[in-house]
Every structure is written in structure tokens, then in C-alpha cells.
Specification:
Blueprint: H1 5-11, E1 16-22, E2 26-40, E3 44-48, E4 54-66, E5 70-83, E6 86-94
Parallel strand pairs: 1-6
Antiparallel strand pairs: 1-2, 2-3, 2-4, 4-5, 5-6
Length: about 100
């Protein structure tokens, strides 16, 4: 019996999960993230599955792209870490 590999690929969830800690909303958890865009004043990063470990400070925005939505945090100042397909964001301040 032949399987349709294209259909099977879409049924596999994305591996990245994220936790966002914020003074206003507390801790939020997100699953099945396709990619994460980190746009800071000095650099731009696109994080995808199995990306290398990262840690850094951000003054700018973070976008998490899922299958059906884009979750934005902007403009913010904070710190992030990505390790083993887990992304952590600590928002220190929402810039206005």
C-alpha cells in the first residue's frame, strides 16, 4: 500500500514550543510554532526547528508564526533563550 507523503508531512506538528513571561499577562505557553522572528535594533534572527542554541537581549519585536496565526510582542525590551526547540522570552518592559 502506498502512502501519500505530502499529506503525512502536514499531519506532523511543529516541534517548537514557547513560554513568554510578562508582568502584565503572567506566563503564556504556545505550542506547534513554525518559526520565530526576533527583530532587535542591532540584528534580525529567524529561528526554525532544530536551530542552534541562542541567548540574548532584545529591544524590538518577537513574532511567533503558527499554522494559522502570528503572535506578536512589540515593542518590547527583554531577554530570550532558545534551546532544544524551546523558546523562552522574558519581557522586562513594553515600550510605548
Amino acid at each position: 500500500m502506498l502512502k501519500n507523503t505530502l499529506v503525512d508531512e502536514y499531519e506532523i506538528p511543529y516541534k517548537i514550543s514557547a513560554r513568554v513571561v510578562d508582568r502584565v499577562k503572567g506566563m503564556q505557553t504556545f505550542e506547534d510554532i513554525r518559526m520565530i522572528r526576533v527583530v532587535s535594533k542591532d540584528y534580525n534572527i529567524l529561528i526554525m526547528e532544530d536551530y542552534m542554541p541562542l541567548i540574548g537581549e532584545i529591544s524590538g519585536s518577537v513574532e511567533m508564526v503558527t499554522e494559522s496565526d502570528v503572535i506578536r510582542f512589540e515593542p518590547i525590551h527583554g531577554f530570550y533563550m532558545h534551546k532544544k526547540n524551546s523558546f523562552y522570552l522574558l519581557i522586562e518592559d513594553h515600550k510605548l
